[in-house]
């Protein structure tokens, strides 16, 4: 949802204190830089879904000034309600499609905020939520379509244990590479895939993450131009070499998925055809 972020938005609580201070006192200089390294997708949510995206990595936060919940990544984005409603509308017009909403991080959240968010999810996606199961064996696309479940919500907070339709953190592993080096990224992805648990969901994060030295070295740069472009060919090549299925490739995520005509999505979808050649 980072396409909802604007340059003048407030710095979010996901940033270190000194970055938040820079955003407050040197906003004319600091916020454009933070913005350039916070945006990870440019297309709106309907374009992403139409392009083939079926998994959404979501980070949310509150503000001390109101009771609303916002998307964020470095800077605050929009309130959550309209984009989530757009996902629901898209699903209603694509009745055989499944979307996974992974609420990865919660910032400045109280128990009341969790209740507000969960109530919002249940209100926007009534009767669409797939219930939690200890085994994934029966959760096929055919079964989901038959039961009319279209949304899997992963809720990576202990608050999820209060609800039968919020999948807990432990059932969807998502190791973070945390590197700016392409070779380290692909080595990490290989190792994690080789040792992944076979009985749960698994997310391969094909993303390079800028650290402070990298940003300082590219102060006038952007995540898309100076980092994502660096790894795109290697990531596509990595995906092409993999096979899907039990203990293999499962969910694959990347930044700027719409680049080159949604090439990333096309290659991931193409990988599924290897099922027929197994």
Keywords:
278 residues; alpha/beta; 6-stranded mixed sheet; 3-stranded parallel sheet; 10 helices; 9 strands; 40% helix; globular
Describe the structure in your own words.
The chain is α/β, with parallel strands linked by helices. The protein has helices at 17-25, 27-38, 45-50, 81-92, 111-124, 141-147, 182-194, 212-217, 223-240, 259-271; strands spanning 55-62, 69-73, 75-79, 99-107, 151-155, 166-167, 172-173, 201-205, 251-253. Strand 2 (69-73) and strand 3 (75-79) form a beta hairpin. The protein starts with 16 loop residues before the first helix and ends in a 7-residue tail after the last helix. The relative contact order is 0.12. The mean pLDDT is 94.
Say how many strands there are: 9
User: Helix fraction?
Assistant: 25-40%
- Average per-residue pLDDT, rounded, comes to 94
Distance between the termini: 36 Å
* Structural shape: globular
Q: For the CA atoms, what is the radius of gyration? A: 19 Å
Low-confidence stretches: none
Strand content: 15-25%
Largest pleated sheet: 6 strands, mixed
Strand order of the largest sheet: 3-2-1-4-5-6
User: What structural class do you assign from the helix and strand content?
Assistant: alpha/beta
The helix-strand sequence is HHHEEEHEHHEEEHEHHEH
Count of helices? 10
């Amino acid at each position: 949802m980072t396409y909802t972020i604007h340059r003048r938005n407030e710095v979010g609580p996901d940033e270190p204190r000194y970055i938040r201070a820079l955003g407050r006192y040197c906003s004319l200089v600091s916020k454009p830089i933070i913005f350039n390294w916070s945006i990870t997708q440019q297309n709106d949510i309907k374009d992403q879904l139409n392009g083939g995206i079926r998994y959404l990595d979501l980070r949310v936060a509150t503000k001390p000034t109101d009771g609303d919940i916002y998307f964020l990544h470095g800077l605050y984005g929009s309130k959550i309600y309209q984009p989530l409603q757009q996902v629901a509308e898209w699903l209603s017009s694509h009745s055989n499609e499944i979307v996974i909403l992974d609420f990865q991080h919660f910032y400045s959240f109280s128990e009341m905020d969790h209740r507000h968010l969960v109530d919002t999810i249940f209100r926007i996606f009534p009767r669409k939520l797939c219930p939690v199961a200890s085994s994934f064996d029966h959760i096929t696309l055919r079964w989901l379509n038959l039961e009319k479940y279209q949304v899997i919500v992963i809720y990576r907070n202990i608050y999820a244990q209060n609800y039968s339709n919020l999948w807990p953190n432990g059932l969807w592993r998502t190791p973070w590479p945390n590197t700016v080096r392409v070779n380290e990224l692909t080595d990490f992805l290989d190792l994690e895939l080789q040792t992944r648990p076979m009985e749960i969901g698994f997310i391969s994060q094909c993303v390079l993450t800028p650290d402070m030295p990298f940003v300082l070295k590219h102060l006038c740069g952007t995540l898309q131009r100076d980092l994502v472009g660096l790894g795109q060919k290697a990531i596509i090549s990595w995906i092409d070499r993999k096979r899907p299925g039990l203990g293999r490739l499962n969910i694959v995520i990347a930044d700027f998925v719409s680049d080159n005509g949604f090439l990333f999505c096309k290659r991931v979808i193409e990988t599924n055809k290897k099922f027929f050649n197994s």
